[in-house]
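Thread: Newbie trying to understand structure tokens

Hi all, I'm a second-year student working on a class project, and my supervisor (Dr. K.) asked me to get a predicted structure for one chain before our next meeting. I've only ever worked with sequences, so writing a 3D structure as a token string is new to me. If someone could post the tokens and maybe explain what I'm looking at, I'd be very grateful. Here's the chain:
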Amino acid sequence: MSFISGLFSRNIGIDLGTANTLIYAKGKGIILREPTVVAIQRKTGYVLSAGGEAQKMIGRTPEDILIVKPIRDGAISNFHATKTMLREFISRIYPRRSPFPLHAVVSVSLDVTEIEKRAVIEATRQAGAKTVYLVENSIAGAMGINLPIEDNSANMIVDIGGGTSEAAVIALGGIVSKNCLRLGGEQFNDAIIQYIRKKYNFLVGERTAEDIKIKIGSAYSSSQNQPMEVRGTDLVSRMPGKLSLNSREIANVLSEIIESIIKVIKKTLEETPVELMTDIMSKGIVMTGGGALLTGFPDIVEKTTRLPVSLAEHPLDSVALGTGKMLSSMTLLKKIT
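---
Reply by user tm_fold:
Sure, no problem. This is what the structure looks like when written as tokens:
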């Protein structure tokens, strides 16, 4: 029985992201969307919960419980937690034991090393998969937004994930030029936390930083200066307190990371063959990934590159949808992987 075409085989696509993990089941679409977070008992190493339940524990756990984010900067940082998390997620999709094999297509960052690739394959196998194919995020994302990646004309995609930012030019089913930076949405959050701590002697948690980024974060300073009140801990008095922030200062905080990402985009364009630049000039750049939702990000990329830039219709789902599409074509999957 072959992978993909087997009548009774179970085929899934996994977007194993730094911030979130999505699983696509053939014939059903995206059926699981959970934070990539695991709660572990310190003494025994036993995994207490994974996904949303574990995320709710962040900042609230007693000393004997450790919250782990097993994927860091697009790569596995905790093998045991990743394996156990995937096993838990897969058991939610297929709660009953089955004699039929499980096959998986898993997305990985553009710059993962061979060791990191092997870690992803082994973790997925130990989670229950018989066969594992790896596909780069940019290829999967391009397929997920229906870019004609097998055409001889070029398409450019920029994927801003939780831990990595990737730019790639794709033609004839392969990547022509690419660059990756291990910075993404989580680094936006870290920068906000560090800024508030340093300037105001005030401590906020990860979830608060994420909320700040979503509500008043921006890729550039605008004429409007939106305020926001946040709660946290005053590090001088060691007491709970409130702090008022505004969108301009948060834009300044994020500017350095955004500039680094734009440099990656420009470098990819510089390394693209001249023959393909005409295609990109006419089609433009498509942005995807959760980080691309930052207010004004596509606008500043368009202004900087002087190319048309659009945001994917479902930027959070693109990679998972792409892995799902690969489940329908063994020929395409083997060619790409």
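A couple of things are worth pointing out once you decode it. The domain at 147-312 is CATH 3.30.420.40 (Nucleotidyltransferase; domain 5). The chain has two domains: 10-140+318-336, 147-312. Feel free to ask follow-ups in this thread.
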